Amino acid sequence: MQVVLAEPRGFCAGVERAIEIVERAIEVYGPPIYVRHEIVHNKRVVAELREKGAIFVDEVSEIPEGAVTIFSAHGVSENVEKQARERGLPVIDATCPLVAKVHVEAQRYESEGDEVILIGHEGHPEVEGTSGRLKKGPQIVATAEDVQSLIVSNPDRVAYVTQTTLSVDDTREVIEALKKRFPKISGPDVNDICYATQNRQAAVRALAENVQLILVVGARNSSNSNRLREIGEEMGVPTYLIEDARDLNHGWFEGVERVGVAAGASSPEQLVRELFAKLREFTTVELTFQNGIKERVRFKLPAELVRSGEDGRTPGRDHITAP
Question: Which positions are annotated as active-site residues?
């Protein structure tokens, strides 16, 4: 079996930064370190950090007063920040800088008098965080059809922002519907959506043109991983989302000679390695590498976690590379 490895795949810069923040906080302040919600959407990552001394909670109220606290990469509302201050919690914010950019954009539009519409999935942590940054909660739309049911006070003073992990194509359709209904609407360019989301989706589209089956390594509650699976299926290729090698079904591979492997932005490379090892248990595997975008983005760590002599940027993580 020939296995084609997507490029890019796995950890994005925001996820690398968030994980590094938790690891360094444990190193600097000692365990336990409390993290509100999963730092990223991946069970393996969460389990490994838990073993090192991280305690994951659903609400700030569960954290002992004075305990070092980390907010996840998805971002939080202003109310959550207020609760942390009231409990005297020293907070380290692991919000992805690209998500923080959306927060700033949404607040700017609101301060200028626009009614904000948020393109995203209701209930997603990122959407909840962005919504909680506004004085008046935004109306949330996920599809072009949702746009038709919007009710605004002034059609000439409307703006939109987007959840970073949505599909570029789906977002474009919603934006077009918004512009058609509200010709004077303001909003960021569609290219402002997360670079990592775009790159991984492009990699799956390229895979779909050259393989008979696609495996996406990612958590079932990961928005970007689920979208990668959907893209493969939309391209007409059987595509399966697996959390790890244990999810493999031998029946998927009957008559299949070329398999593509992609990984969501919060999936560690170790899961991809374990997948290859599992495949080699029942067939000979020839590994090839997709010619894709090489990501070199690195985000800076919070100043309190930067070691002496470092530039503050997160280091790159272990990655399978072509020989």
Answer: 126
